[in-house]
Design a protein that fits this description.
Blueprint: H1 4-24, H2 35-48, H3 53-60, H4 67-74, E1 79-80, H5 83-90, H6 93-105, H7 107-117, H8 121-132, E2 141-142, H9 143-152, H10 157-172, E3 182-183, H11 196-202, H12 218-231, E4 241-245, E5 261-262, H13 263-268, E6 272-273, E7 286-290, E8 299-302, H14 304-312, H15 316-329, E9 346-347, H16 348-360, H17 374-387, H18 397-413
Antiparallel strand pairs: 1-9, 2-3, 4-6, 4-8, 5-7, 7-8
Length: 414
């Protein structure tokens, strides 16, 4: 048997090794607190930020996570709706007629707001129609509970914690009672569907009653929407854009929002109005070309106000629908071109396949997530250039078929 001193030295070495192993191991993440414990921490933050104890007691009493909110947050649509599929669903003849009736009904109020903020009446009504179907769908979710649910969840916790604190301030400032603060599952509120942070920065008390009531007072809702658009750089003397026709030799790679040119430059390239007449040229004004359904669909020249709409909602289809609805409310023509195109969408699984094929062929589409973002569209343009196709960057079922055929030829030649 080893001597006692030897055994002690061996034990010391083993103990030191074990200690080094434990130190080298990453420390375990602290356990997530239960919801009520977490909510107490939110209360403490809100109190430190100036929210009264009375507001916290009334607004957060009996608040528990809303399972349906998490379900909706995790929901991913099965397919990517085409421009025509989106527009035909959102800007129907009934929506246009209803909007015209309401534009007439509220003309005097809207004119005053337009005069103050520089946002024409038709755009305010168009946003109203797109956001809540003219107030018919304000949302029925309790905003405080919805925001608390999303803030407690890990996916976008920091963002929604800030929204929750803003919502508590809105209640504390007396603009609405907690039980009446209803909205979408994600916390968008009122006729114009403001998030609490947007409310805090841009909501307006147009009636002078001391409350910014975007839920029940149209004057406050419209003035708030106009104030928000004004802050986004809305130009009172410009429209959002217009439908155009492109020449046969148009370089489709330039049909991107980040490719802006003076209107004269586009006109010199052969871009014309939808009816074939020359493109109006305004000194100092620039535009970009948007092809929401690829080179075979309608084309639009969009201006700075289109970008303001995009700042409200980052969807190009949404921004085009707002502009188009605003035009239709005052009797401007329907979109003339591309209506014969299929409204067949790409399913999300097909978009993932498209991204995977692009990556396999070296076109670098980025993450294979089924979302056709800028990197995927740039990869599509590179593939289209290699395949001798118009470089519009638009994902379609036909493009996926061409990509599969291209991949097969590449494998065969290899």
């Amino acid at each position: 048997m080893p001597a006692a001193g030897t055994r002690m030295r061996r034990a010391a070495v083993a103990g030191a090794a074990a200690l080094c192993f434990l130190i080298a191991m990453p420390s375990a993440a602290p356990a997530k607190p239960d919801f009520q414990t977490w909510l107490e921490a939110v209360k403490a933050d809100a109190r430190a930020d100036g929210v009264s104890a009375a507001t916290l007691d009334s607004a957060l009493k009996d608040v528990t996570p809303v399972a349906r909110v998490i379900e909706l947050d995790r929901h991913q649509p099965e397919f990517m709706r085409t421009f025509w599929g989106y527009l035909n669903n959102r800007v129907t003849p009934e929506v246009v007629q209803r909007g015209r009736d309401l534009l007439d009904k509220h003309d005097a109020m809207l004119a005053r707001i337009a005069g103050r903020y520089g946002v024409p009446e038709r755009y305010l009504v168009a946003f109203w129609g797109m956001e809540t179907n003219y107030g018919a769908h304000l949302g029925s979710f309790p905003v405080i509970a919805s925001l608390a649910t999303l803030a407690y969840d890990d996916r976008r916790a920091a963002f929604f914690r800030r929204q929750l604190l803003h919502a508590l301030h809105i209640v504390d400032d007396g603009h609405i009672a907690p039980r009446r603060m209803k909205g979408s599952w994600a916390g968008a509120m009122g006729h114009m569907q403001f998030l609490p942070s947007t409310f805090v920065r841009h909501a307006v008390d147009a009636t002078g009653d001391g409350r910014k009531d975007i839920w029940h007072t149209l004057r406050d809702a419209f003035a708030s929407g106009a104030n928000y658009l004004d802050s986004l750089g809305w130009k009172a003397d410009e429209r959002w854009g217009r439908e155009v026709v492109l020449p046969e030799d148009f370089p489709y790679a330039q049909a991107q929002l980040d490719v802006t040119k003076p209107l004269k430059a586009w006109a010199d390239m052969g871009v014309r109005r939808a009816n074939g007449e020359p493109l109006p040229v305004v000194d100092g004004m620039k535009g970009a070309i948007v092809l929401p359904q690829g080179h075979e669909g309608p084309a639009f020249m969009v201006y700075d106000n289109f970008r303001a709409i995009l700042s409200w909602n980052r969807s190009v289809n949404y921004a085009l629908a707002v502009g188009y609805l605003a035009d239709r409310l005052i009797g401007l023509p329907r979109i003339r071109h591309g209506r014969e195109l299929s409204t067949e969408p790409l399913k999300r699984a097909e978009l993932v396949t498209l991204q995977s094929r692009l990556n396999e062929l070296g076109f670098d589409a980025g993450a294979e997530d089924g979302i056709p973002g800028p990197q995927t569209r740039a990869a599509i343009r590179r593939f289209q250039a290699a395949a001798g196709l118009p470089r519009d960057g638009h994902p379609t079922p036909a493009l996926l078929k061409k990509l599969r055929a291209y991949a097969q030829r590449a494998q065969g030649s290899g």
